[in-house]
């Protein structure tokens, strides 16, 4: 399969950052916002559009980790959350960020679905949505490691064209690697679901705690089972070429409050100092 990748350099417009707005450096579409909160707010918990927003304790302080939707209007200034039964408003100036384009030639069976394939996709989407609504109450380690050794072949947020037709934006990061290369957990967590789906191929879906989740797709083999607790660095499977894939690679997506964010934010960055 022919794969043409067009890279685009990200640009940012910087704004003043207050002392409590620790994570505003990542406040762009597809990024995250980190804010210090009180103990009472931490105890009450946060939700955005009925989805759990991760919170954590570090160095005797408490923090909110909010995933910013990739398709949000750059002029959006407020996000309405719930803190327990109280309204809670996040106010921030989103930074501009540009994303590249990626042109991919792929089998028409993935772009022109047969009735049987469409039925399968709908069933599998419902199964995955059930898992998305589950989360594990546990401490969060936001200092991620890379899940695989390989070269990035697809960046987060790129606008994708399949057989020259515009598709959805790329909601994760692709790492090109040989079939059989180890895939490890970038942070500890619980396996919510595994399977072999039409688009995903073989995959592992896990919660790192408080609705901070990862999904690893197009795998060749899976070495964990639903319900397993996995430590950071533990092998969960191996690179493959299953599902909607043009060659051996790992696709890794991360969600906060069920919003896709750039996984690389959590690698080699100190989210909370």
List keywords for this structure.
mainly beta; Immunoglobulin-like; Glucose Permease (Domain IIA); 4-stranded mixed sheet
Overall mean pLDDT stands at 89
**What are the segments in which pLDDT stays under 50 over at least 5 consecutive residues?**
1-21
Total domain count: 2
* Structural classification: mainly beta
What percentage of the residues does DSSP assign to strands (E)?
35-45%
- Could you say what the CATH topology of the largest domain is called? Glucose Permease (Domain IIA)
Number of helices: 2
Corresponding CATH architecture of the largest domain:
Distorted Sandwich
CATH C-level label of the largest domain: Mainly Beta
Rg: 19 Å
Order of helices and strands: EEHEEEEEEEHEEEEEEEEEEEE
**Which geometry do the CA atoms define?**
globular
Q: What fraction, in percent, of the residue positions are helical?
A: under 10%
User: End-to-end distance, in Å?
Assistant: 44 Å
Query: Major β-sheet, in short?
Result: 10 strands, antiparallel
Could you state the CATH homologous superfamily of the largest domain?
Glucose Permease (Domain IIA)
In total, how many beta strands? 21
